[in-house]
## 1
Amino acid sequence: MNGEATIEVNGLRKRFGPTAALNGMSFTVRPGRVTGFVGPNGAGKSTTMRVILGLDAADEGTALVGGRPYRCLRDPLRHVGALLDAAALQPSRTARNHLLWLAHSQGLEARRVDEVIEQVGLRSAARRRAGGFSLGMRQRLGIAAALLGDPPVLMLDEPVNGLDPEGIMWIRGFLRSLAAQGRAVLVSSHLMSELQGTADHLIVVGRGRVIADTGVADLIAAASRGRVTVRTLAPERAMAALVPTGAAVTVTGGDTLTVSGVPAERIVEFLAANAVPFSEVAAHRATLEEAYMELTRDAVEFRAAGRETAR
């Protein structure tokens, strides 16, 4: 499976009128791991996935699945399974008949339809009309369709949308199990929280290009470096004591400050010298969300006013 379980995107450029949707997008999705494809709305994630699947043509660049363009794949569902729009179904068909129709187009047996229905937890709803499904059930049906051909590559666009907490827990474990089988799993999202505990690797994009291509642990470590968490019941006094030292101080909670530019031991000295009470001064460990926000700060097209950092 591993030889076919790769997505290679190289130098994709795509314009829609005056708007550059893709601006040199390049990355590789490798087998055996869940790769998060993340970025703000409008960053180019969906357009990239549509180009990979041959639904949009790039102005420049290439997108290959297992070394070949999608249009050259014979029985494509056996090579790559995709969920781009959970609403893309005939509402009058039952879930099972929807999958049977897709299976027939690829020369797959009805037995395979029943297998994927079981995999995604839709057995009790298999003979219900899909038009009456909740969004979460449609997501499960879309994932079942992506799995029909037992493909080495899976591409899912915002698959957690509409799932309840149980469904979110299920899909996280399910995606990890698919990657453990040696498949390449690409999951797009604009919310880091949806990929927490799921993705092994991240491709972070903004304004049509790759900002970071890195492991999750490496990204968190880089975002954490040189920052210190201070917990104090007197945050304003702490800021007054630390800002004159040249430190950058951010209020991150009612009693929590994040400080950079000054080592932890010096922070303790400054707080003690100014009689500022504190309960903790420790090296800061960034969350995945913080690391992501830091990377994409300049790539967000629309933003609300937020907290400022004192210096």
Note: Residues 227-283 form a domain with the Alpha-Beta Plaits fold (CATH 3.30.70).
## 2
Amino acid sequence: MTERPRLTTTAGAPVASNQNSKTVGRNGPLLLEDYQLIEKLAHQNRERVPERVVHAKGWGAYGTLTVTDDISRYSRAKVFEVGSKTEMLARFSTVAGEQGAADAERDVRGFSLKFYTTEGNWDLVGNNTPVFFVADPYKFPDFIHTQKRHPRTNLRSATAMWDFWSLCPESLHQVTILMSDRGIPVDPSRMNGYGSHTFSLWNDKGERFWTKFHFKTRQGHKNYLNHEAEAVIAKSRESYQEALYGMIEEGRFPQWDFYIQVMPEMEAEAFEQRTGWSAFDLTKVWPHADYPLIKVGTIELNRNPENYFAEIEQSAFNPSNVVPGIGFSPDKMLQGRLFSYPDAHRYRIGAHYDSLPVNKPKVPVATYNRDGTVPFGMTSNPDAYYEPNSFNGPVEDPSVAEPPHRYSGVVDRYEYRGEADHYSQPRALFALFDEAHRQRLFSTIAGAMQGVPEFIVERQLGHFDKVDPAYGAGIRAAMKGQGKDDAQASLTTSHAVAAE
């Protein structure tokens, strides 16, 4: 039998007893000098970091990105070299639920990827939908407030959700996806992933291309209907964790095909004139007929973490982590997240969150960041703690300079909500649904509107009417109970849905 290691304090000193506290006599009071008792209690008080404000409930695994197709004409990033294999971490999540929420609730799913490339970490923070509820980060905190608990009742508020959505018609596209059969994927392997935002790629010639990232599931789409999800939640609140962990442990490694859409840099203005919306609007998609999918490779998840807290709960995905050849765009929500995500990590985990093993790149790090709370093994030349310096400290590399962005304009708070077309894309999506799917959509929305003040319901129905008169009429009928039996009869187990 292997000899067991000796129990020690955190300072490495051996522990004589880990069973009983020091007391004054058998039944006397405890002693403050029992430092190991104090240490254990104090550490327990700090065992949990604050949960994420959004995406608190999550599931993750490690894997590999394998590049199969050449996109060097668009990007110089080494991670895209044909034949390359890059280690990665994926974390899936629900957006609104707390850590104790059920996995199979109707919600948008986070789809975040961290690639440990030879040029540093590239993080892609996305969702399982190609669009989002809002297009301006100014409204993001307000939207998230509607997904959290009411200050007085401490309950989720359907009134808050529909009040906000009815006053923000740009949310229609995402609301339609969420309330449709696509709203509750069976498990993480059965859904697509999207970078959602518009990013940019740039090549060795200094040419820039706007891009969208897509990850198409190879397992096939499979989604729960409302009554199926309710039955799952009644048995287990951890169905996603069980499924993802189980399939990897059994060697059934989930895979996704990785694609990009590409738009030449100077085409964005013409695109807006042609379509009526900006190429950088997070509430809209790019038509595939105009910008077809271009294959890049495949991602596969093939290793479970050894310690969920250290490797998944403390994982920190940061959209500002890019590598040479990948850049940003004027997508307003992306611009806001470039600040918001790393700031949230600093608050939740600490100033040196990116030095934790799960977040640390696989390449050497040379930075002038220093000190702060728990600087994980940070070392540097003690004389070169500022820049510029004369003591052989790290210096910049002009060869990886990104080509300049072509921005110009008058600074203002521009109103886009009343000018953009918020109805045609939800209309196109609604047109894809067969009659049975529509009836389930109507029933789901009608149920979600229960208890919402009539004036808010009518305002939201007015938006559905603008998408398609049949959309609004169907919800009205469902709210009155009309067609309920037909809709129930059309329910099928594990309903499969076509990809976006």
Note: The CA atoms of residues 244 and 425 lie 32 Å apart.
